[in-house]
């Protein structure tokens, strides 16, 4: 075989091998992109379910609490219509949250939820001390910690007889620590509430490199503590 033919065969063989290599690389990249896309879709579905629990569960529970409170005050209470109006407004919030759940969680913030928690607890005769400086927090961190406050307050109204609540944010060496504590479980050991709420919080904080835990304090205090780096790695 002439040398020129050897060269031509070698060039063709090399070209084929390079083409095969490029094809394999592209196929692997496409497979990886599809896997990433599937994971993204799964995360989106999980976030949707979590937001449905957080938003709708919160407002519907608030509606039932307000309705019960209104009926308790019905005998000779001139504020009945106001209380029932608040219950109706809560139900409307729930319906609105269902329609706009994909948008509603974007507006969640630690500062906003802390102020709402203070006002809500005050309507039930409980004192709520808020020591939170949420300025300059990354939006994702503020939203996640806001969810912790909302879940904590919802559960303390559901499972305890809260009279005093403390919501406090502290920072040390770049680590944010949010504590939501209440004195509503005297005489018995505080236990984590049943359901998916705590698990959802842990999942949400874990995505930011954070943790959530509950603990019993002295005098019937129940502590919900969330920790997350201020500057998390995405």
TrEMBL record:
Signal transduction histidine kinase subgroup 3 dimerisation and phosphoacceptor domain ranges (all copies): 48-107
Its lineage reads: Bacteria, Bacillati, Actinomycetota, Actinomycetes, Streptosporangiales
What stretches pass through the bilayer?
6-28
Q: Which organism is it from?
A: Streptosporangium brasiliense
Q: Which InterPro entries match?
A: HATPase_C_sf (IPR036890), Sensor_HK_TwoCompSys (IPR050482), Sig_transdc_His_kin_sub3_dim/P (IPR011712)
Q: What is this protein's record name?
A: Two-component system sensor histidine kinase DesK
Top enzyme category: transferase
What EC designation does it have? 2.7.13.3
Question: What molecular function does GO assign, one term?
Answer: protein histidine kinase activity
Classification via Pfam families = HisKA_3
Question: What keyword terms does UniProt attach to this protein?
Answer: Kinase, Membrane, Transferase, Transmembrane, Transmembrane helix, Two-component regulatory system
Which CDD domains did the record assign?
Answer: HATPase_UhpB-NarQ-NarX-like
